[in-house]
């Protein structure tokens, strides 16, 4: 099965894509972003476009898109989640980064970083913190977010609707004060492995 994510090769970078502009998404973007989502996730572009249109009409979701030469080359969402209302635990209410997709030809060219910074900045303009969750095995994403100042704060949480295949989810937080500064890196995946080695019974 083909992975949804590029393999972890931190030294591999393409030529930065020139002229990329990140802007707030509009209803007109539902169709092109739906095509990108369908290409990576499967299902039809029309169904993804419909999902995106519904999310754009909901005040709990905001879309940012990256354009180059008049073409959308990536997009990402921020969503206001209320975990405890849905039966979750250990994760606070707040704005969470989610659903970033970059077109194949624009990957490893700085688009994902621009989208992530823009989404973070859009939240921290009016909130004190922004969150995201990630699988411990997704090293590339963890490194990118750590560079921006995200701290891994918990590996013991339940976020309704989010399932990690290896039960290896990590909750991360970035505060306004820490944005774009070097942050203390807490590697919760290594902590988990150490705990398991010390206590084989779990």
Automatic annotation (TrEMBL):
<keyword id="KW-0808">Transferase</keyword>
<dbReference type="InterPro" id="IPR000182">
    <property type="entry name" value="GNAT_dom"/>
</dbReference>
<feature type="domain" description="N-acetyltransferase">
    <location>
        <begin position="20"/>
        <end position="177"/>
    </location>
</feature>
<feature type="region of interest" description="Disordered">
    <location>
        <begin position="25"/>
        <end position="45"/>
    </location>
</feature>
<dbReference type="InterPro" id="IPR016181">
    <property type="entry name" value="Acyl_CoA_acyltransferase"/>
</dbReference>
<dbReference type="GO" id="GO:0016746">
    <property type="term" value="F:acyltransferase activity"/>
</dbReference>
<keyword id="KW-0012">Acyltransferase</keyword>
<protein>
    <submittedName>
        <fullName>GNAT family N-acetyltransferase</fullName>
        <ecNumber>2.3.1.-</ecNumber>
    </submittedName>
</protein>
<dbReference type="Pfam" id="PF00583">
    <property type="entry name" value="Acetyltransf_1"/>
</dbReference>
């Amino acid at each position: 099965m083909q992975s949804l994510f590029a393999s972890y090769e931190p030294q591999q970078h393409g030529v930065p894509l020139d002229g990329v502009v990140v802007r707030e998404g509009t209803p007109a973007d539902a169709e092109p972003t739906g095509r990108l989502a369908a290409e990576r996730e499967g299902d039809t572009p029309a169904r993804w476009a419909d999902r995106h249109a519904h999310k754009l009409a909901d005040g709990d979701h905001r879309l940012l898109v990256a354009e180059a030469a008049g073409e959308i080359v990536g997009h990402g969402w921020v969503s206001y989640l209320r975990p405890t209302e849905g039966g979750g635990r250990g994760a606070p209410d707040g704005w969470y980064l989610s659903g970033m997709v970059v077109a194949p030809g624009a990957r490893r060219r700085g688009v994902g970083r621009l989208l992530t910074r823009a989404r973070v900045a859009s939240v921290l303009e009016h909130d004190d913190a922004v969150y995201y969750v990630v699988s411990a095995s997704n090293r590339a994403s963890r490194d990118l977010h750590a560079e921006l100042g995200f701290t891994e704060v918990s590996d013991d949480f339940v976020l309704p609707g989010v399932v990690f295949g290896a039960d290896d989810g990590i909750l991360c937080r970035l505060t306004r004060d820490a944005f774009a500064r070097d942050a203390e890196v807490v590697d919760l995946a290594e902590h988990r492995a150490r705990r398991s080695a010390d206590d084989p019974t779990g």
